[in-house]
């Protein structure tokens, strides 16, 4: 009888080890193989699956409310001047309105405001004197290259696709957690000649290293449009007060 009890407990211990300890060891091994430190700003992420998104994206299972705001802008679609639909274009620009933000934008899967401690350690350009509650990722420039070597520059304006904590991929050498590693705007898609689910290479670049191109031209025009719209809004408010 005592032998049966001992065998029972030995079997139970083996089951616990197999079900809980062994999976944890496997997970630990995976972590050890992952990058432990951020890489320099100009590190290339190669052969990354890219998908297309846009300001005002239709409702889907991944964006049940549509993309009317970004992780860092509550009024993204309003601040852009309207929807950036890929179906209504005027060349590289939206065909329904004058864009008041740069139409060359991307989303990457990390949110520094949601993970401030990780951001402090992993963002290569992290600035401790930055205003509290203001993203240090928003607006940072990204260089993107298609498989034929054509290059475009865009600004990081939202978080995704799918996750917001993939810092080992965004700032390190790991592969992305999700099936797609970068979301690109319709302007980026058109400029690079992408078709739905292509693979690209990308890296972070400093603003001073961004060359002249439509991404600068349209950004300057967007700033001008934004100033004009703001002035018109202020004049409208002053007329109402009178």
| Biggest beta sheet attributes | 6 strands, mixed, barrel
Strand order of the largest sheet: 1-7-4-6-5-8
Percent helix, as a range, is 25-40%
Taking Cα atoms only, what radius of gyration do you get, to the nearest Å?
A: 23 Å
Please trace the helix and strand order, writing H or E for each element.
HEHEEEHEEHEHEH
Q: What general outline do the C-alpha atoms trace?
A: globular
CATH class of the largest domain: Mainly Beta
H/I helix tally: 6
CATH topology of the largest domain: Barwin-like endoglucanases
Oligomer: single chain
CATH superfamily of the largest domain: RlpA-like domain
Rounded average pLDDT: 83
Number of domains: 2
Percent of sequence in beta strands:
15-25%
CATH-scheme architecture of the largest domain: Beta Barrel
**Derived structural class:** alpha+beta
Q: Give the distance, in angstroms, between the N- and C-terminal Cα atoms.
A: 97 Å
DSSP strand tally = 8
Question: Uncertain segments of ≥5 residues (pLDDT<50)?
Answer: 14-33, 59-66
């Amino acid at each position: 009888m005592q032998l049966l009890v001992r065998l029972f407990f030995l079997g139970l211990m083996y089951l616990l080890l197999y079900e809980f300890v062994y999976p944890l060891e496997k997970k630990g091994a995976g972590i050890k193989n992952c990058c432990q430190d951020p890489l320099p700003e100009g590190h290339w992420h190669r052969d990354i699956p890219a998908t297309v998104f846009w300001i005002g994206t239709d409702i889907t299972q991944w964006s049940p409310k549509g993309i009317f705001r970004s992780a860092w802008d509550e009024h993204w679609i309003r601040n852009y001047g309207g929807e950036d639909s890929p179906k209504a274009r005027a060349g590289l620009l939206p065909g329904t309105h004058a864009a008041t933000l740069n139409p060359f934008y991307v989303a990457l899967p990390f949110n520094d405001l949601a993970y401030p401690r990780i951001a402090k350690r992993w963002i290569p350009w992290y600035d401790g004197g930055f205003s509290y509650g203001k993203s240090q990722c928003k607006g940072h420039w990204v260089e993107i290259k298609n498989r034929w070597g054509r290059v475009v520059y865009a600004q990081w304006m939202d978080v995704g696709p799918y996750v917001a904590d993939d810092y080992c991929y965004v700032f390190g050498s790991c592969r992305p957690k999700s099936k797609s590693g970068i979301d690109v705007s319709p302007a980026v898609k058109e400029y690079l000649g992408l078709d739905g689910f292509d693979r690209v290479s990308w890296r972070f670049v400093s603003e001073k290293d961004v060359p002249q191109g439509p991404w600068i031209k349209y950004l300057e025009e967007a700033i001008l449009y934004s100033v004009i719209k703001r002035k018109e809004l202020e004049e409208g408010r002053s007329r109402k007060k009178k």
